[in-house]
Amino acid sequence: MKTKISFYTIGLILIGLGVVLTIKADLGAGAWDALNVGLSITIGFTVGSWVIIVGIILIFVNALIQHAKPKFLALMTLFLIGFSVDFWMIFVLRNIEFNTLGPQILALVGGILLIAFGVSLYLQSTFPANPIDQLMLSLHERFHMNLMVAKTITELFALLLAFLLSGPIGVGTIIITFLIGPIIQLFNGPVSKRFEALSKK
């Protein structure tokens, strides 16, 4: 159980750091992160707050799609990611700026790797998934969509809203959209083996 909690907590903390680095890189954040930044700029509240608010809305959307009860246990995942994003953005990296292309690229790549590694860690725990990930699964199960098609639909939806709200969309957004899945898959094998080995101790 300790291994599950450790992988889950560390994974979500790393996801928060990765998200902040991709935003700070200023080359275009992931679609959902760009949406949260756009909401923060347009309406107010912190980016982490919008991670939680949008996630809560998606909990009900997922329930509606699946004709099931809302999965409120996912709130635990939401709050940890939201607090992690705000922690890194407000208290740790607040005064850090990447003003030239080299550091911007390094921040973007580092952020993508941290998000992918964090996702591979937290998914080992079998605790409730992020409602964004659950939305893809809900569309897949309800309408028998291919997972890639379902993922593309959810990303395009977030991208459209982010565009309307002047969120940070750029080349980085495209890179994240197409590379994050394969990189998660790359990390998942070694992380799963490590998780299994530690769980047996």
From TrEMBL:
The chain crosses the membrane at residues 7-25, 37-65, 72-93, 105-123, 143-165, 171-191. Keywords: Membrane, Transmembrane, Transmembrane helix. The keyword Endoplasmic reticulum does not apply. Coiled coil: none annotated. It comes from the Bacteria. InterPro entries: YczE/YyaS-like. Pfam families: DUF6198. The keyword Mitochondrion does not apply. PANTHER family: INTEGRAL MEMBRANE PROTEIN, INTEGRAL MEMBRANE PROTEIN-RELATED. This is Permease.
